[in-house]
Structure formats: C-alpha cells, structure tokens
Design goal:
Layout: E1 39-40, E2 51-52, H1 62-77, E3 83-90, E4 93-104, E5 109-110, E6 116-118, H2 123-136, E7 157-162, E8 168-172, H3 179-183, H4 198-205, H5 215-223, H6 240-252, H7 256-268, E9 289-291, E10 297-299, E11 322-324, H8 325-336, E12 340-341, E13 344-345, H9 349-355, E14 374-376, E15 381-383, H10 386-389, E16 397-400, E17 406-410, E18 415-420, H11 431-440
Parallel strand pairs: 2-4
Antiparallel strand pairs: 1-13, 3-4, 3-18, 4-5, 6-11, 7-8, 9-10, 12-13, 14-15, 15-16, 16-17, 17-18
Helix pairs in contact: 1-11, 2-6, 2-7
C-alpha cells in the first residue's frame, strides 16, 4: 500500500514537535482463518453521518463560522499558504466544508474539497485504533511488556552516559517497556531529531525509518539501539507508533496495511486513505511547499527522497499515510460516536474512552510536551485544563501532521474539526490556534456551560 521513499531526518523534522509528525522474526503470514469483520450494529447516530446542514440547525452562527474561510483565504492572499481545506462537524452534521487557494500554484489548479494530502503523524491515531481493535480481541494487555510480542526488544539497555573515550555507557531497564508506555510516548524510544544525544545519533546512522526496509528489519535495528531514557520516566516523541505497526502485524498475522484496509478503511468508507497515491488519483494530490530564504512559497517535499506516488516496503504507522479531508472526518466521527459510524462498529464506546484518558504515569507533573494543560492518552494528546491549554473543553483530543494538517475532537461540544494544508517551514502560520478560536466563537448554543 505505501509509497517507496527514503526518509532522512537530518533537517526537515526540526521544527516544533507538535507541529511536525505534529513501525528478526519471520515475516508475518496471512492468517489461515478469515479476518474478523466489523460488527454491524443498529444505527445509533441521528441520521446518516456527516450529512450537510446549516450551522444554525446545530446551534452555530453561519456568519461567524464563515470567518474560518475568510481567515484561510487571507493567508493564501498573503502568500503564506498555497491552499487550505477546512471542515467542521457538530451533532453528526457537516456544517462547514470549504477550500481556498490552490492545490498546485504552478499549474494554478484550485484547491478542492476532495484533494488528497500527506497526513504524516495524523496516521498515529489510526494506528492506535488498529491496536485497540486487537486489544478488544484479547490479543494483549496494556501492561504487557513489548518484548513479549517483539522478542527483538528483549533485554534492551538504557543510555546512561558516555565514558572518557566517548563510548556509550548503558544500564538495564528498571522495568520492561509496556505497551501502555509505547502508546503514550513514554517507553524510552526516540525519533533521532527532537533531541541531541548519542542515542539520537544512532537512530540517524541506522536510517531508522528507511522506507525500503521491511518491518522486521526496522524492529531489528531498534533492538540494537539503547533506549534514550528509562521507560515511564519521560514523555518523548518517538517512533513508538511505527513499533505499534509492527505489533499489529505480529498480533494479527497480517501485513499492517492490509489490516488497516480490512478493519478500518473499507468499513468506514475511507476510500482515499492509503500509504501512497495511485496514478488515477494523482490529479487530486496536493503539492507540498516550503519557504525559500525570502519567505516565498517553493514546491519541495519536506523530507529528502519522499515519494508518495509509489508503494513502499515499509508501512509507517507513525507517519506514512495520505488521505482526504472527508476520510479523516469519517474516522473522527466514528471516534466521537463511541466507535461506530453508519451502523458499522469498529470499537466499543469504553475502548474509545480509554484512548483519550490520560495514560501518563501518576507522578508526572508535566507531560513534557511543551503544551500546558495537556496530557497524553493512547496515541492522542488530551486537554486536561482548557485554561492552561488555551482551549475550550476538558477532554478534547487531537493531533497533527508534519506538513501542517490538524484535527481535534471535542466530546463536550459534540464537535470535530479537520484542517488540511501542505506546508513545511518556520514561516508556517499557526492555523491550528486560529481555526480553534474562529470555530468556537461561532457556537451560539454551547453544551459545556
């Protein structure tokens, strides 16, 4: 399913962890028994999911909500973004779905609502749902050690410093990395780019997310590198979700992409989400931009050698997917509905709730994410204190992608927002904060007061 590309981490990953990516046992064989199918359940949501409706029908103001479109158009007119798609859903109704600017500046092709985007780390919640499907089937416990299912991780050592000759000093883990820690970025792994340490250098030397490697080769590389810190001691953004992709393969007996297609994408009607863009959809694939030295937009992939038009060997659960705005709306509405969409159940309500509860150790005073008032669940960030987080609802959960895509789900206001851009670089405007303010000021009938 993926696109075969060589990912290097030297430079493009360096800006803002939350705005960036704000995975040597035998290869898994197909199971001899048919894969379980999503459960058909009585339709619980009012009407078909994501039907178009007026903002007023769900307690919002049309004129105020239109400020989102106006603000995005301003950013395009100022030359800060090429094009944007934004969408808002309340009470299961699609009340805002707008595109502005261009899908490709050179050809002057306009941005359209059905454009396909590199969603990078917005792949992570999808991988988390795949994990929790297997959790519901009794395949693992969150407290299980990762090495129980990935023996390459057995007896991993932990970085403890360097000696006078510059050699790494290591120590044993004070406890085995658990799956809960893996799914909350507290397992001791790293990315190689959000900190400077000898362990991060080893990630870079190993080309840890080489798109041409197999999943088993990826896990084998990680098994030879010490953990950056003790499991459970620190929140540190990492390749943990790519490791979850390997766990899905080991636990299900299926290739990761096949599992996603059969258990999530096909049941939810996510027809554009994949690990590459097929030839027949290239006319909808948005160009990606960076800024030159003068702050002008220049077409350029964010990572050296990136190519999303061919199917890669390594299916990155942490950042490898492409998809459309509507696909991610459908995925998000499934979560907000407690695990079902249009009569198809993917997860149980309590399982979804578990994913957006704080999963960090009880003695953590600060998640270490650089975002006050925020904790971390199972592959989602979670708002614990809306005042500190400069947000609106306790329990909102969210994430974003390296090329600027963003989303949030607010269970209090029964609200979803998805925004799609394709922009790297330090000059990128803070569309996440801007859109949040403009959406909430349009709510005239709040549910959380």
């Amino acid at each position: 399913m993926l696109s075969r590309r060589k990912i290097h981490f030297q430079s493009a990953f360096m800006f803002s962890a939350l705005a960036l990516l704000l995975a040597c046992s035998p290869a898994p064989q197909s199971s001899s028994t048919p894969a379980p199918q999503p459960e058909l359940v009585p339709q619980m949501s009012p009407g078909i999911a994501l039907e178009r409706a007026t903002p007023e029908s769900v307690g919002m103001d049309s004129e105020r909500l239109s400020r989102v479109t106006g603000a995005m158009q301003d950013l395009v007119d100022e030359g800060r973004l090429a094009g944007v798609v934004t969408a808002a859903v309340r009470d299961n109704k699609l009340v805002h779905f707008e595109s502005v600017g261009y899908r490709d500046l050179e050809s002057q092709d306009p941005m359209t609502n059905d454009a396909i985007f590199r969603i990078y780390s917005m792949s992570k919640p999808i991988t988390g749902v795949a994990m929790m499907i297997l959790y519901e089937e009794g395949k693992f416990r969150l407290s299980d050690p990762v090495e129980q299912y990935l023996p390459e991780f057995k007896d991993l050592q932990v970085f403890a410093g360097v000696d006078d000759d510059g050699n790494l000093i290591t120590e044993p883990q004070d406890h085995k990395m658990t799956i809960r820690e893996l799914m909350s970025h507290t397992g001791g792994l790293s990315y190689g780019v959000f900190s400077r340490s000898p362990v991060d250098s080893l990630y870079l030397d190993a080309d840890i997310l080489d798109a041409n490697q197999t999943m088993d080769e990826f896990i084998g590389k990680l098994g030879d590198i010490p953990l950056r810190q003790q499991p459970g001691s620190q929140w540190h953004y990492s390749v943990s979700v790519d490791v979850q992709g390997a766990l899905v393969e080991r636990l299900s007996g299926q290739r990761f992409g096949d599992f996603l297609e059969q258990r999530i994408f096909e049941p939810l009607g996510m027809t554009d989400t994949d690990f590459h863009v097929p030839e027949e959809k290239l006319s909808r694939f948005a160009q990606v931009y960076n800024y030159d030295d003068n702050g002008e937009l220049v077409a350029r992939e964010g990572f050296e050698g990136a190519n999303f038009t061919i199917d890669p060997e390594f299916e990155s659960g942490g950042g490898g997917l492409v998809g459309s705005t509507m696909d991610y709306l459908r995925f998000s509405q499934m979560l907000l509905n407690g695990g079902e969409l249009d009569g198809v159940r993917i997860l149980a309500p309590l399982t979804v709730d578990l994913m957006h509860r704080n999963q960090l150790p009880a003695d953590f005073k600060d998640a270490g994410m650089g975002t006050p008032g925020t904790s971390f669940g199972l592959d989602f960030a979670v708002i614990e204190d809306p005042v500190e987080a400069e947000s609106y609802s306790k329990g909102e959960y969210y994430w974003g992608g390296a090329a600027g895509t963003w989303f949030w789900i607010d269970p209090v206001e029964d609200l979803i927002f998805v925004g799609m851009i394709q922009q790297f670089g330090n000059g990128r405007p803070d569309v996440r904060s801007l859109s949040r303010r403009l959406v909430y000021q349009s709510i005239m009938e709040p549910k959380g007061l």
